[in-house]
Amino acid sequence: MMRLEVPGYSTLAQGSSLDYSFSGTGVNVMSALSRFGHSAYLVSTLPDNPLGEAALAYLRKLGIHTPWVQRGGKYVGQYFLEHGFGARPSRVTYTDRLGSSFNTVAYPETEWGRIADGLDAVHFCGITLAMNDLARMQMKRLAGEVKQRGGIVIFDCNYRPSLWGPDAYGQARPHYTDMLQAADIVFMNEKDAIFTLGMETGECDRIAQLEQLIPQVAREYGIRTIAGTHRQINGDNTHTLTGYIYKTSAGREAQTKAMEAAGGGGFTYSRPLTFPVYDRVGAGDAYASGIIHAELQGYDPEYAVEYAAAAAMLAHTVPGDTPISSESDVVKAMSDRTRDVER
């Protein structure tokens, strides 16, 4: 997608210029994983015009490989970002995403198997599910091909009600169910379980809801890892972020039993991190990237959730959607020390 941003803290009605860049959950996650040392590829369609060339150049600058980005159509999906300040929240306004090349140009059927052959893991985003039937079909097709070959399927629920229209949850639920049935690693919280999946809980506290519903989701869909965050916006405009990870894999049975005996289930939580915010958009993708990196490297849940939370915190400190921190940056941020200028 193309991000069109009003400079500073002006609204669209006040501003007279826009800065642009290219982003999207797939771009953000692949860029972060590339910086963590993985070979990252994007599967997409860009217009065969100068706008598409600019997007390709931007992807390559981020370290993302582009041999599976086909060309066709005329448009790139866009959104406008107004930065919030104080009591006024940031606001995202989507334009005609359905007319983008991604939504109007089908990927050749013969390519899905070839792409899946070269992947250890594939990441999908719930925002893409809100596109159209073509996008949903292609997501499910690639997920199935990767699953069939023993690869890891990753799904971030990332639900956006404004993209689904009337009866939003009812429209989204069957498609989310299909993706969850294919997924090994999922990013979600208790709100996704309650509203998107229609699950019920008698609990009122968010943590209690999380610890009741997430294990049910894992059992019902056979998911080995579920992770997410809780955010609190403080009176001084700082944010406090706490990450969690829930593990169900056989290798974690002993720890899971010990946690269940202590009343906590198979959950591991990060320390709450409190920090000022420069740009919030894309921070969830940074957290997801940290968890994915830790899962692919085989790190234990305690390290994984602290690493991911630190990666998310760093993403709040730079402009733009796309995380730019290296693994060493994240490890340094995991320290409690206040850092001065590095020379």
Overview of the structural elements:
By secondary structure, the chain is of the alpha/beta class. It has a domain of 105 residues: UDP-N-acetylmuramoyl-L-alanine:D-glutamate ligase (3-Layer(aba) Sandwich). 40% of the residues lie in helices and 17% in strands. The chain has 13 helices and 13 strands. Strands 7, 8, 9, 10, 11, 12 and 13 form a 7-stranded mixed sheet that branches. Strand 8, helix 7 and strand 9 form a beta-alpha-beta unit. Helix 6 packs parallel to helix 7, helix 8 packs across helix 9 and helix 12 crosses helix 13. About 5% of the residues have low confidence.
List its traits.
343 residues, alpha/beta, UDP-N-acetylmuramoyl-L-alanine:D-glutamate ligase, seven-stranded mixed beta sheet, four-stranded mixed beta sheet, 13 strands
Question: Helix and strand layout, with pairings?
Answer:
Blueprint: E1 2-5, E2 19-22, H1 25-35, E3 44-46, H2 50-61, E4 69-71, E5 78-82, E6 91-94, H3 101-104, H4 111-117, E7 121-125, H5 126-129, H6 133-148, E8 152-156, H7 168-182, E9 185-187, H8 190-196, H9 206-221, E10 225-233, E11 239-247, H10 253-261, E12 267-269, E13 273-275, H11 283-297, H12 301-315, H13 327-333
Parallel strand pairs: 1-5, 3-4, 7-8, 8-9, 9-10
Antiparallel strand pairs: 1-2, 5-6, 10-11, 11-12, 11-13
Helix pairs in contact: 1-11, 4-6, 6-7, 8-9, 11-12, 12-13
Question: Would you summarize the structure shown here?
Answer:
This protein has 343 residues and is α/β, with parallel strands linked by helices. It contains 13 helices and 13 strands.
